[in-house]
Input
Amino acid sequence: MSATSCTHLDTIEITELPEEVAGCEDCLASGGVWLHLRICLACGHVGCCDDSPGKHASAHAAADDHPLIRSLEPGEEWCWCFVDDLAMRIPQITGETRIPRSPMLG
Output
């Protein structure tokens, strides 16, 4: 995976991952549940993946025109561009985030 075909790398504002997050911001606010967590690289919004009922990461990307996310799951370093439909690794993004166990996993 490379970032050579993504045309949105100039939208990246978040290059250091937070030390810890409480979960999907939208699910926490609404009482929903999430499976996997993603962070918006434009503003730091933490949303849930498209396998989660709320699909908040992709909803945020569409609503706010923020095309790039990164997985916050342990051991995952991939990023995704919703506009270019492209997975990649972006080495400038550093850090590791402690996340809570998914409520969907019980």
User: Anything to note?
Assistant: Helices lie at 25-30, 56-64. The chain has a mean pLDDT of 95.
